[in-house]
Design goal:
The structure holds two protein chains of two kinds. Chain A is an all-beta fold. Chain A has strands at 4-7, 10-14, 19-25, 31-37, 43-49, 55-58, 61-66, 71-76, 85-92, 99-101, 105-110. In chain A, the strands form two sheets. In chain A, strands 2, 4, 5, 9, 10 and 11 form a six-stranded mixed beta sheet that branches. Chain A has a five-stranded antiparallel beta sheet with strand order 1-3-8-7-6, with no helix packed on it. Chain B is 0% helix and 52% strand. In chain B, strands 2, 4, 5, 6, 9, 10 and 11 form a seven-stranded mixed beta sheet that branches. A four-stranded antiparallel beta sheet of chain B has the order 1-3-8-7, with no helix packed on it. In chain B, a hairpin with an 8-residue loop joins β9 (90-97) and β10 (106-107). Chain B is globular, with a radius of gyration of 13 Å. Classes of the chains: A mainly beta, B mainly beta.
C-alpha cells in the first residue's frame, strides 16, 4: 500500500523567511503533484513533477523531486501572507492516474 | 482550458433523504472521473473511480449502495448520496481526466454537504 507522508503538518512562519515542506512516499512513482487549497475551496494545481531531478519554480515556490530517495520538497522563499494555505502533495504510481494524497501542510505566514 | 464544474456548491439536506451532486468537464472529454471526500482539516480520500459507460470502482470501505456513481457521458458524472446521515456531511470533490493512464486530473470546486 502506498503511503505518502508530509511534514510538517502545520507551519507558522514569519514573512520574509524561507522554509521547506517535505513529502515522502513509500513506492516507486512516475509522477508527483503539488496542490494548494484555500479554506473552503478546492485544489489548485501548483506543480507536476515527472522525472528524477525535476525542479520547477513559480514565484516564491520551488518544487523538486528525487525519485531515488522517494522525496519531494516544496521550498518557500521569502514568504508572504498570501501564501497562507494548505499544501498537499499527491503521488501517482505507475502512471495509473490514481492519486494518493499526503496529509497536507497547513501554512500560516504571519506579518 | 481543463475546467471542471460541480453543482451544487453547497447543499443542506435532512437525514434520510438523498442528494445528487453533478460533476461536469466543460471543455474536454473526461474518460475518467474521480470522487473524493474531505473531512475538516483532513486530506482528500478517494472514494471511487468511474470510466464513461462502465460501473464505478469503489475504494475499500466505501459503500457502493450508499454512494451511487453514474458516469453516463464523457462530460458528466454524478454522485448520489442515498439515505444521508449527519456523518456523511463532508466536502465532496470530483476530478476529471482525459484518459486512464498518464493524464493529469483536473479538480472541480467541490460541494459542501451538510446533513441535519
Amino acid at each position: 500500500e502506498l503511503k505518502v507522508e508530509q511534514n510538517p503538518l502545520f507551519l507558522s512562519m514569519q514573512e520574509g523567511k524561507n522554509y521547506t515542506i517535505y513529502c515522502n512516499y513509500s513506492t516507486t512513482s512516475d509522477r508527483l503533484y503539488w496542490y494548494r487549497q484555500d479554506p473552503g475551496k478546492s485544489l489548485e494545481s501548483l506543480f507536476v513533477l515527472l522525472s528524477n531531478g525535476a525542479v520547477k519554480q513559480e514565484g516564491r515556490l520551488m518544487a523538486s523531486l528525487d525519485t531515488k530517495a522517494r522525496l519531494s520538497t516544496l521550498h518557500i522563499t521569502a514568504a508572504v501572507h498570501d501564501l497562507s494555505a494548505t499544501y498537499f502533495c499527491a503521488v501517482d504510481i505507475n502512471a495509473g492516474n490514481m492519486l494518493t494524497f499526503g496529509g497536507g501542510t497547513r501554512l500560516m505566514v504571519k506579518p | 482550458g481543463a475546467v471542471v464544474s460541480q453543482h451544487p456548491s453547497r447543499v443542506i439536506c435532512k437525514s434520510g433523504t438523498s442528494v445528487k451532486i453533478e460533476c461536469r468537464s466543460l471543455d474536454f472529454q473526461a474518460t475518467t472521473m474521480f470522487w473524493y471526500r474531505q473531512f475538516p482539516k483532513q486530506s482528500l480520500m478517494l472514494m471511487a473511480t468511474s470510466n464513461e459507460g462502465s460501473k464505478a470502482t469503489y475504494e475499500q470501505g466505501v459503500e457502493k449502495d450508499k454512494f451511487l456513481i453514474n458516469h453516463a457521458s464523457l462530460t458528466l458524472s454524478t454522485l448520489t448520496v442515498t439515505s444521508a446521515h449527519p456523518e456523511d456531511s463532508s466536502f465532496y470533490i470530483c476530478s476529471a481526466s482525459q484518459g486512464w493512464s498518464g493524464f493529469e486530473q483536473y479538480f472541480g470546486p467541490g460541494t459542501r454537504l451538510t446533513v441535519t
